[in-house]
Fold:
Amino acid sequence: MLFGSRPAALGIAEDTLEFALSAAADTHPNEYMGVMRGTPARELGVDEDGDIVTDVVFAPGTTSSPVQATMRSDLLPNDSHNVGSVHSHPNGVLRPSNQDVQTFGKGRAHIIIGAPYERDDWAAFDRKGEPRDFDVYDVSLPDPEEFFDFDQADIDAELEDR
Structure:
């Protein structure tokens, strides 16, 4: 895959959305922020080209308050599996602020979750802060234990794909 050439972000796995909603509720009244990471849809049994968000990573060094959350960009994973960001608005507003849009960067999709953090209390946006379609997929997620099941050959293969 060429640098900067990343597959489309199709949507989010149902279980991952539930996790993000729960994390945002647990963090309330402070903002929650995480990095969304995707898995190729075909690996999840979905006959489409693109990524489905299957993971939300909480970056070390993230700080939050009732009005903002910030992440240290130097501690974020930086690879083709990054889809964008997810963060909460404790005030329930489901649209990005100007500051939000400035932090969206090169992400393919960004989710804002609003209080009271129920199933429909979220919206997706593109990197310019414009609303975008982002489907919810009922897929089986990979076993988290498999994440750590790799060796040097797997690392070399991943590097060759870049």
